[in-house]
Amino acid sequence: MADDYGGVFGAFPYAFRHSESWVFKLYVLVGALASVIVSLFVVFGLVVLIGQTAAVPGGSLTLSRSFYVLVGLFLVAPLVAPVLFVARRHRRSGSDSRYDLSLALAGFVFMVSIYVGLVISVPTDLQTAPQPFTLGPVTISTLVPVVELLYDLPPLYGLVPPTACALLVYGVHRILR
Question: What is the per-residue pLDDT across 7-59, written as a single tens digit (0 to 9) for each?
Fold first, then answer.
């Protein structure tokens, strides 16, 4: 079984090679990049957090450091899950383009939900007034009310979109397997 993958890192090239869906192959590339970026943010953020609290004795700070890593895991796991699900399915029962495409789309939706969750949780003093953007001669202002609505939500609601979309990734896997 020289074609078999060896864990999380080997699942990415394995899934890329064996999938027939171009959307899924795009997700493998974008998902890998997003996973690396999120992991780096979490690692560098943890280093900064430890550096700022190094002189303080343990206790609740140790718990907050662990919680920081746990939040990072909850962000990276749904990014990697579609690739792992597809690699496992291809290894065990062969190809299914609909399954691959559906998981790729659910993974992309999860990526967007992370961004939406971040917009919701922006502190009030850091929020900027949303403005329409221009693409050549066309001005697009439909997103302005959406961003204003997201800014008006309580910051804790920023957990809802990523959580719901992580469950969506798992739900798509369970329904289509």
Answer: 788 888 888 888 889 999 999 999 999 999 999 999 998 888 888 877 777 66
Residues 88-100 as b/e (b if ≥16 CB within 10 A, e otherwise) read: bbbbeeeebeebb
Burial readout 109-146 (b: 16 or more C-beta within 10 A, e: otherwise): ebbebbebbebbeeeeeeeeebeeeeeeeeeeeeeeee
The pTM for the full model equals 0.86
DSSP secondary structure string, 29-98? HHHHHHHHHHHHHHHHHHHHHHHHTTTS-STHHHHHHHHHHHHHHHHHHHHHHHHHHHHHHHHHH---HH
Give 89-105 as a 3 state SS string: HHHHHCCCHHHHHHHHH
